[in-house]
Amino acid sequence: MIVRRYAAIVLLMIFLVSPATLLAQTSQTPAPDPNDPIQRIKEEGTKRSEVMQTLSYLSDVIGPRLTASPGMKRANEWTRDQLTKWGLQNAHLEAWGPFGRGWTLKSFSAQVSSPLAIPLIAFPKAWSPGTNGPLTADVIYVDARNDADLAKFKGKLNGKIVLTAPLREVPAHFDAQGTRLNEKELLALADAPEPRPSGGGRGNFGGNRSGFQFAANKLRFFQQEGAAMLIDPSRGDGGTIFVQSAQVASPPPDPNATTPTRGTPPYNKDAKITPQLVLAIEHYNRLVRMLQAGEAVKMTVDLSVAYQDADLMGYNTIAEIPGTELKDEIVMLGGHMDSWHSGTGATDNAAGCAVVMEAVRIIQALGLKPRRTIRIALWSGEEQGLLGSRAYVAKYFGSMQNPATSAAPATGGVANSGNGGGNGNGAAAPAGPTLIKKVDYEKLSAYFNLDNGTGKIRGVYMQGNEGVRSIFRQWLAPFKDMGANTLSISNTGGTDHLAFDGIGLPGFQFIQDEIEYDTRTHHSNQDVFDRIQADDMKQASIIMAAFVYNTAMRDEKLPRKPAPAPAPGSR
Ligand SMILES: [Zn+2]
Questions:
Q1: 508: alpha, beta or left, given left = phi > 0 and alpha = psi -120 to 50?
Q2: pLDDT grade, residue 21 (50/70/90)?
Q3: What is the 523 CA–ligand 1 centroid distance (Å)?
Q4: Using CA of residue 162, residue 165, residue 166, residue 169, what is the dihedral sign?
Q5: Span from the CA of 342 to the centroid of ligand 1 (angstroms)
Q6: Cα 521 from Cα 453, distance rounded (Å)
Q7: pLDDT band at 404 (very low <50, low <70, confident <90, very high)
Q8: 386 is in which domain, residue-wise?
Q9: Which of 159, 312, 335, 440 has its CA at 20 to 30 Å from residue 500's CA atom?
Q10: pLDDT tens digits for 88-133?
Q11: Residues 61, 85 within the same domain
Q12: What is the CA(521)–ligand 1 centre distance, in A?
């Protein structure tokens, strides 16, 4: 549609515009200067792009990169070596943690074995234990919607394979699974209201309290009753299944507790987990209907896994292009490299990693000498709660700490080794967390993140930082013809820029086209190389390189939002 409209405009110009006006117009917009760094970035990123090779190695060759798994470690080492090969300096693995144990799948098969053979589309959840050889057992459908329903299954689940949740209808898809942001959606983003100050998407305890409570009760019941295997119906359909972590049964709730008790994560070395699978919805529903028709159904599952608990640390890959006269100041770019395990983590988030790697490769290959140091970070532990980026930010830049704990920060660093001005003078007892700065707090100009899949960049979320609007407006100007010209004052959550934003440092995530992120690829077995759009990846790499380069060259650091005030009466 856009192409057709441009063609019409060109025709109009040819027929209606006088030669004098044409001349004036061409002199106003001269041909792009081939020596302009942004033009050179465009040229390098279009004609000599390596972004798809990088992506293929990360996703096809290395494969899934669950935090603390050997795949993650291999990705850390490969990216370190690749960045070094391109000429970056100080490339290294940086430990954070302790995180917990790794997990790898050694072998897996699951089928219905009686009354007839049915091969199944299924996948074990991460950190699920194995079955110690083939497990053949009766399948039981627990159609429980409350504790009373659950009680009816007492004494009936020992050694059984349990279908844990109600049957779900599977409607046809009348809408396209892949989409790009249209003009109306982009306009809505541009017109979005100022985000509320403490925005960062922290969930509220008690939102769907009874729902969470029942899910926890159900899991505890299954474990107490000695179920051999738990099977969840998958979100998605048509061969796409979404798979994340196994869940650990929590102890019964303490009625006197004022805050929720934190469950044990499955990567905790001592977590006791019942083996867990996710099953394609159409297969799940069929088993339910067979059981409801009175058939005795048996399944055979053979699951073998390995835990890695020799090294409980997580690792980020870090590397730099040293700056020149402002080399003490830093511009960062990054994305998380850890992934889920049923696909190859192509859109979540080898795509973002390949783009930020390509951005520094372009800058390095062109011999552009940035004034500030450009530092790339490929995080791990993002999927478990932005753990790698938060630990890194706490170590070098600062963290929000509760008054009670600020004397002994959990990060193990020095409480305030920097010029920590602006933290108040400690006269009144602060009501909530306070910012404790580290030496590099004043040295970071900005952090740019990419983690919303394969879709090209359409603009930037400004995270409520009005001060960057005119700067970003200028920086986006050369990319209007590539589809990127929207600035939204709004913030977006769910990824590593929040680690920076949370302590008042400029941290940005770009606005990206959705493509098939939520419908097909995000945390699914279809998160693979073939769902990646090569032209979008090239576009994103070019814009990422330009933003990082511009930030490194600018006289001033990027403006910051007002420093985060102590939160009044945090709960
Ligand atoms: Zn994710």
A1: beta
A2: very low
A3: 6
A4: negative
A5: 12
A6: 8
A7: low
A8: 51-96+313-397+438-537
A9: 312
A10: 999 999 999 999 999 999 999 999 999 999 999 999 999 999 999 9
A11: yes
A12: 10
Domain termination residue (choose one: 308, 332, 357): 308
Ligand 1 midpoint to CA 470 (Å): 31
CA of 381 to the centre of ligand 1 (A): 10
Reported as a single tens digit per residue, the pLDDT across 492-532 is: 999 999 999 999 999 999 999 999 999 999 999 999 999 99
CA of 297 relative to ligand 1 center, distance in Å: 35
**Domain C-terminal end among 267, 289, 308:** 308
Q: Are residues 164 and 82 in the same domain?
A: no
Instruction: Calculate how far, in angstroms, residue 348's C-alpha sits from the geometric centre of ligand 1.
Output: 5
Same-domain pairing of 87 and 189 = no
Same domain, 74 and 106: no
Ligand 1 centre and the CA of 454: distance in Å?
13
Identity (one letter) of the amino acid at 307? Y
Instruction: Please check whether residue 544 lies inside any domain of the structure.
Output: no
**CA 324–ligand 1 middle distance (angstroms):** 36
Structural domain total, the chain = 2
Asked if residue 318 and residue 269 are part of one domain, the reply reads no
Residues 68-93, mean pLDDT to the nearest whole number? 98
Rg (CA), the chain: 26
Quote the ligand 1 centre to 20 CA distance (angstroms). 55
Residue 545 lies in a domain: no
- Residue 547 near residue 65, CB atoms below 8 Å: no
Q: Calculate how far, in angstroms, residue 343's C-alpha sits from the geometric centre of ligand 1.
A: 12
Which CATH number goes with the domain that contains 69? 3.40.630.10
What distance in angstroms lies between residue 339's CA and the mean position of ligand 1's atoms? 7
Span from the CA of 122 to the centroid of ligand 1 (angstroms): 20
**Residue pair 218/150 in contact by the 8 Å Cβ criterion:** yes
Distance 416 CA to ligand 1 centre (A): 33
Q: What is the CATH number of the domain that holds 217?
A: 3.50.30.30
Calpha distance 287→295 (Å, rounded): 9
CA of 20: how far to CAs of 7, 24, 200, 288, in Å?
A: 21, 6, 54, 76
Q: How far is the CA of 449 from the centre of ligand 1 (A)?
A: 14
The CA 75 to ligand 1 mean position distance, Å, reads: 17
Ligand 1: distance of its center to the CA of 522 in Å? 6
In a domain, residue 504? The reply is: yes
**321 with 445, same domain?**
yes
For residues 533 and 454, is the Cβ–Cβ distance under 8 A? yes
Claim to verify: residue 280 and residue 327 sit in the same structural domain: no
Extract the tokens encoding 558.
């990027």
The structure's pTM equals 0.88
pLDDT of residue 380: 98
Q: Is the dihedral of CA 539, 544, 545, 547 positive or negative?
A: positive
Lowest mean pLDDT among 31-40, 415-424, 520-529: 415-424
> Distance from the CA of 383 to the center of ligand 1, in angstroms?
5
Span from the CA of 95 to the centroid of ligand 1 (angstroms): 21
What are residue 307's DSSP bridge partners?
103
CA distance 302 to 107: 8
Same domain membership, residue 169 and residue 144: yes
**What are the Cα distances from residue 248, in Å, to 130, 271, 507?**
15, 7, 33
